[in-house]
Structures are given as structure tokens and as C-alpha cells.
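hiii so my PI (J.) wants the whole complex modelled not just the main chain, which honestly fair. so below is everything: two entries, each one labled with what it is. i double checked the lines twice but i was tired so who knows lol
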Amino acid sequence: SQTIHQWPATLVQPVGSPLSLECTVEGTSNPNLYWYRQAAGRGLQLLFYSVGIGQISSEVPQNLSASRPQDRQFILSSKKLLLSDSGFYLCAWKQGPSTGELFFGEGSRLTVL
Amino acid sequence: AQSVSQHNHHVILSEAASLELGCNYSYGGTVNLFWYVQYPGQHLQLLLKYFSGDPLVKGIKGFEAEFIKSKFSFNLRKPSVQWSDTAEYFCAVSLTGYSTLTFGKGTMLLVSP
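here's the output for the full assembly
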């Protein structure tokens, strides 16, 4: 069966420091991968998605970037964190480009101080 | 721009009360519709989905939703809620053939015993 892992689960970082959140999917190949940010009362905001290795689409221009160095690995990064980057980040996957449900990881809670 | 609206941000019910959570979307094409649930401390999981066919879809734990195309709505219902239904509920929409889901802002449901 397929599984999705995110780490770290919790992260506290100072303003201006770099960020790297990792997401790995197991048990499938060539998945579509997604990074969402969840904020209280604001729902889920799509940040990036990828349909293949090295292919990244950005939905919201901001202080973050994403990379997909391997088929089942998706990384969310920042060179210099801002206070406004604090939030709950969710990785998700689905099988290919066709219509289908997303499967979510357990999330990473980022606090920028 | 495409959007998903959930009518209520917070709903408080007593056990055995009936539930209806509203969801409206603004998309011009053929849509696929989802309801996700996030129980306290758990990751997002799919409650039910609609792709085509019978507009009344049944999901897990006694939930159902009705797609009304003329009203651009996909409301979630449950005849009798339980304390264990306390969670945040998200409506999501994607256009057929597209890879991304757009989420509503969520509805926090609190069921008192």
C-alpha cells in the first residue's frame, strides 16, 4: 500500500534562517505531488505542485520554493524565513494527472520567531 | 478566479442532531467534488467524492453529499451526528482533467455529548 511521510513534524526557526521540509511517498511511481499550507480559518492554500521530476508549478509567489529531485521526493525550501511563513504545511500526492483524490501527509508545523 | 465557499466557519450541535454543511463553488467547467475531514490530531482524509453519475453520494461514517449542478453546490449531510464527528470539514473542487484541488476555508464542527 502507499504511504506518505513528512518531516520534521515540528520545527521552530528564527527569522532569516533557511528551511527544508521533506516529503516522501512510498508504494507508487510517478505520483503528482503537492505542497499546501493550512492556516486557521483560511483553509488550504496550494503552494506548489509537481507532475514529474524537476517539474514544479508555483501557485503563489512568495518566499518559498520547491524541488523534486527524485520521483517520490518533494522538498519545500526557503533561503530566509519570514515571520509570515509560520504555519502548518501539508504534503499530498495523487496518482498521475487524472482526476482523483489527494492523499495527505501528517503535516509539518513551522513556527518562525 | 475559481473559488470554493463554505458557508459556516463554526457549527455547534448536540449529539443526534442533523447536520448540513454548505459548499458552493464557482467553476465554469465539469467539476469533481470532494469533502475531506480532519479529526483532532489526525491528518486530512477523504470523506466522500463525486466524479459523475448519481448526484447523491455516500461516504464513510454515514455522511452523504448531494451535487446540485444548477446551484453549484455540494452540501454535506448526516442525519444524526455523534460526538466523534467533531472535526474540521473541507470542501474541495477540481476541474476534470486538471491536477489541482481548490479547497474551501473549512468548517469546524463541535458536537457536544
